[in-house]
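User: Quick sanity check before I run a bigger batch. Here is a single chain. Can you write out its predicted 3D structure?
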Amino acid sequence: MSTIRSNPRTRPETTTPALRTGSVVWTIERRAALLAQPELGLDTKSRKPVELRISFESEQAPAAELFDPGTNRSFPIELVRPQVTFLDAEPYYMHVEIASAGETILSATVKSGPESCRLLYARTSLLSRLQIKGGRYPSPGFFRDAH
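Assistant: Done. Predicted structure follows.
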């Protein structure tokens, strides 16, 4: 009779600090943004898409804005008493939820490593609040530093 010895599995040490800062950015066709928000005075001649940016930084209040790269102007979106929740799944996944006045401002999951991050899932109610029509838009991007 032989004995098999096994060592208990140990979780790998996480050397990367928990991700708590970043921006999720949706690019929106300029024409769709102009039709939905004509009062903002977005540049009508630029061909660059408008960006919806939702940024968070640890315990600080999150921010949301429409950004016009044609004029380099930012249009803040009001968030009423936003609540931010972070959930971590060790060692590399972070989920952030931002709620404000009964709506989900952001629900996003990010896979982070020592040198890069990848957005796995993102959803926002701000596109419908801004009355931006649905359609085919590129997937949103994640930027480690808040814009």
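Strands lie at 21-28, 50-57, 63-68, 73-77, 83-89, 93-100, 103-112, 117-123, 141-143.

User: Great, the batch can go ahead then.
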